[in-house]
């Protein structure tokens, strides 16, 4: 009995050993990245982040300013005047925050320098570029400025009124979000279709793409197209290595889908904190120059947005042609429909699954690059923030169907952005959760999914 027990113990330790070795390799790679990136990142941040500590003799006037897309409006300047001839300036840091200590209680005037706003961003209620605030020693005093993509836009009652211009602007933003979301969602759908696994670490592939593009384009000074190409290749390689080192060995051990899903959750958390450790919590910019805006048919978007949408359409079309017109693509669809029957037909299922992981990681990396350019920044939580949108898109379109993931992504993107007409800021992302619940209640198989009989 003793030799059998030893052999069984060794067999159980093999997956853990493989994961441990992979973690060590990732750690070594991360250490190399930290040595090369961290010093440059610290220099690029432009100094210490905005901070202020209150005490019995000090008050803090502070706030945060973000673009209409929710990204930090770093570099925006504010002038603060107050009692006793007080006059100082503050600058929004890379996290979107600013703070200024004062040592005298009273009423202060905070004026935003509209000339320092990023291109394509405008102050809502432009005539109200000043805010009055009462500072009390030992307390914080907050000041709010809101930005919009539309010049002369307003908040309050006028902002809530219906406008076809606003609808067109938000609809275009929704198409943009949907196309970039589709790049990642199609890969997520293919992984589910071929393996039955819902990968919660797929969002971190998006984050990895954005951060690698930041390293290549910002820190190493590469051309953005070369940086994007290298990023996609490296991200695709990580998908190949993941399946070779983790998922294939675990599948051969007979782990259930629930166990594999828990592994993806753990991998997701580990990667998030690895990104935060090596790159910090602040938002980093792939391109430091403020984007130039272009207005077409009354819709104003940045040049990066139009380029990203064009690249997304081309890549999505090529992916569709690959899945429908090539022999390997048809084999992929066969494995997605029925893995056992595909194997009986002579298809190498493991090879197809390896290809799917590679393709999915590459598409997610490209999505991260495009999102980083369009949103003018990327941070360690970028992928996590859109993970719910990806799951909602895949569920809406139909689990395991790539075309359904595309349609679902476009619908989710448009609905989320149109929600901004009635809900402010990041509340729009809660719409995805509501859509997901409604789908599961009334059509759990999705738009293009097939209802299956259970039992």
Q: What form results from the Cα inertia axes?
A: elongated
CATH architecture of the largest domain: Orthogonal Bundle
- Kindly report the spatial arrangement of strands forming the biggest sheet: 3-2-5-7
Strand content bin:
5-15%
- What kind of assembly state do the chains in view correspond to? single chain
Return the domain count: 2
Protein structure class: alpha+beta
State the CATH topology of the largest domain: ABC transporter involved in vitamin B12 uptake, BtuC
Order of helices and strands: HEEEEEEEEEHHHHHEEHHHHHHH
* Overall pLDDT: 81
User: Percentage of helical residues?
Assistant: 55-70%
Largest sheet: 4 strands, antiparallel
Give a count of the beta strands, DSSP E runs of length 2 or more: 11
Radius of gyration: 25 Å
CATH secondary-structure class of the largest domain: Mainly Alpha
Give the structure's gist in a few sentences:
This protein has 455 residues and is an alpha+beta fold. The protein is 57% helix and 11% strand.
What does this structure look like?
The chain has 455 residues and is an alpha+beta fold. It folds into 2 domains: 59-160, Immunoglobulin-like (Sandwich); 164-442, Orthogonal Bundle (ABC transporter involved in vitamin B12 uptake, BtuC). The protein has helices spanning 2-44, 157-160, 164-195, 202-219, 224-252, 257-279, 303-325, 327-337, 339-344, 349-374, 382-397, 402-418, 430-442; strands at 59-64, 77-82, 86-91, 97-102, 106-112, 122-123, 130-135, 140-142, 147-148, 293-296, 299-302. The strands form 4 sheets. It has a 4-stranded antiparallel β-sheet with strand order 3-2-5-7, with no helix packed on it. A 3-stranded mixed β-sheet has the order 4-1-8, with no helix packed on it. α4 (202-219) packs across α11 and α7 packs across α8 (327-337). The longest helix is centred in the first third of the chain and has 43 residues, at 2-44. It starts with a helix and ends in a 13-residue tail after the last helix.
